[in-house]
Amino acid sequence: MAQYDVVIIGGGPGGYNAATRAGQLGLKTAIIEGRGKLGGTCLNVGCMPSKALLHASEMYEAANGGEFAKLGIEVKPKLNLVQMMAQKAESVEALTKGVEFIMKKNKVEYIRGWGRIDGPGKVVVKAEDGSETTLETKNIVIATGSEPTPLPGVTIDNNRIVDSTGALSLPEVPKSLVVIGAGVIGLELGSVWKRLGAEVTVVEFLDRILPGTDTEVATAFQKILAKQGFKFKLGSKVTGAEASAKGVKLSVEPVAGGAAETIEADYVLVAIGRRPYTQGLGLESVGIVPDKRGVIANDHYKTTAPGVWVIGDVTSGPMLAHKAEDEAVACIELIAGKAGHVNYDIIPGVIYTKPEVATVGKTEEDLKAAGVAYKVGKFPFLANSRAKINHETDGFVKVLADAKTDRILGAHAVGPNVGDMIAEFCVAMEFGGSSEDVARTCHPHPTRSEALRQAAMGVEGWTMQA
Ligand code: FAD
Ligand code: NAD
């Protein structure tokens, strides 16, 4: 029977980064993946294909009566959806092959099949042909990820009523698309299809979009999306859906009570969150009991079962690829007897729309609730020269700093390229930096990053460019 130091179940960002680090540290490692390709949700049906379509649709919109005309570039684009999907698939294929290469490079054994824990130190892998192999290991890392949360009464048929995976591969541009859930997936994939020509209506249970995001940022972002043509039905719940060959009839009611209405759409995207995936994992064989949401609890990535560890979407915390990646490194370093650690106060979140939304650290609501005295510095992209030249002036940057110590507690932005730029605040915060540290750091001109500096200056009231 094959013997390992670490067997990792799941080949997503949690699993493949754990495998890479384990390989680097000289541990005999196997990674088991059932979907036939490494990369997990992120590379196959999540982060990467969605970004491929966001990029392509942004280009299309710019050419199709968008910025191009303003810039003096006159073109009449023709949408080739088949090619748009093909280039997405090609990039995804290259990325998943890249992960396979990294596994080989780090001497990690990649085993195709579905893994099942079969008591302490044992994992059974069922291959596609039905054959089973048992692996013996000192450590098991569960990295099985998540799946879309279903909505009772709205059955996903992945024909007319789709989840995120279906919405990444629609066969045509819908005339009308209803998105259920004003979260990250709804707004990113809603943006894709809106740019390609769909009328998009977002139905959200709460009375705001993006719960958990700094309210001022979310409210400004909603206004920008509404200006782009998004329709919002907030405080509304979908109580039923009737799909036919041509489209879907949705029954929608105000959450606060009132008359129900019927909304018709060509397609419906259900994006109300994701839930941990542990089906067929054999947790009972080692006595692990997930909570009622399906989450496997962890204490420094240890489960309640000795030698069984857990990371990524299947455990607590934000369901983000970079969070899974950081937990992977920390978990393996702990297994190898090193000091693994993740700073959960500094996990950025980005929404890759146009403009982008980027956040890290505490929101104003968090600080108010905790009774922390803070100062705010803000700067609008309207006053940033590069944004102005590029006609991308929607949005602003906001910096929250401790009123006594000036330590940066949070940074929140909506605007051009803020998803890349937020890393500046992540680094500053990891170093325990103050708003003055960022305000006195030389930033290149003319760049949109100057808006971050000007917002930091604003904390002590010396913003210079607005
Ligand atoms: P996963 O990526 O879900 O990987 C788990 C893997 O385990 C899967 O491949 C699954 O097949 C496999 N598996 C499960 N059970 C078994 C078993 N018993 N045996 C063998 N294999 C098994 N996050 C971001 O940070 N940025 C983004 O831009 C972003 N965009 C997203 C867009 C969409 C549309 C979606 C759906 C998600 C997006 N996410 C994004 C979230 C991100 O994909 C997840 O947070 C991330 O993939 C979690 O990594 P993971 O390794 O925990 O799980
Ligand atoms: P989400 O949690 O971001 O948003 C779900 C939304 O649906 C919320 O606004 C919620 O209030 C609403 N909702 C819940 N039940 C509802 C109902 N019955 N009717 C109407 N609205 C309802 O979830 P998501 O958008 O599905 O994304 C899932 C996960 O994937 C998230 O955790 C996210 O972090 C991750 N993801 C990240 C990115 C990124 O980082 N750019 C992109 C896509 C997905």
Question: Which secondary structure elements does this structure contain, and how are they paired or packed?
Answer:
Elements lengths: L1 E8 L3 H12 L4 E5 L6 H6 L1 H17 L3 H4 L10 H25 L3 E4 L1 E4 L4 E5 L5 E11 L3 E3 L12 E2 L1 H4 L8 E5 L3 H12 L3 E5 L11 H14 L2 E3 L2 E8 L4 E7 L6 E5 L1 E4 L3 E3 L31 E3 L10 H15 L13 E3 L4 E6 L2 H7 L3 E7 L4 H5 L6 E7 L5 E8 L2 H13 L4 H5 L10 H10 L7
Parallel strand pairs: 1-2, 1-6, 2-3, 6-17, 8-15, 9-10, 9-15, 10-11
Antiparallel strand pairs: 4-5, 5-6, 7-16, 12-13, 13-14, 18-19, 19-22, 20-21, 21-22
Bound molecules: flavin-adenine dinucleotide (FAD) and nicotinamide-adenine-dinucleotide.
Flavin-adenine dinucleotide (FAD) binds next to helix 1, strand 2, helix 2, helix 3 and strand 4.
Report what the structure shows:
- The protein is an alpha/beta fold and 466 residues long.
- It has three domains: 2-148 and 275-342, FAD/NAD(P)-binding domain, CATH 3.50.50.60; 161-271, 3-Layer(bba) Sandwich (FAD/NAD(P)-binding domain), CATH 3.50.50.60; 346-459, Enolase-like, domain 1 (2-Layer Sandwich).
- Helices cover 32% and strands 25% of the residues.
- The chain is built from 14 helices and 22 strands.
- Strand 10, helix 8 and strand 11 form a beta-alpha-beta unit.
- Helix 1 runs parallel beside helix 9 (321-335) and helix 3 (47-63) runs parallel beside helix 7 (184-195).
- It is globular, with a radius of gyration of 23 Å.
- The termini are far apart.
- Flavin-adenine dinucleotide is lined by residues 9-15, 32-35, 40-42, 46-47, 50, 114-115, 143-146, 164, 185, 277, 280-281, 312-313, 319-322, 324, 352.
- Flavin-adenine dinucleotide (FAD) binds next to helix 1, strand 2, helix 2, helix 3 and strand 4.
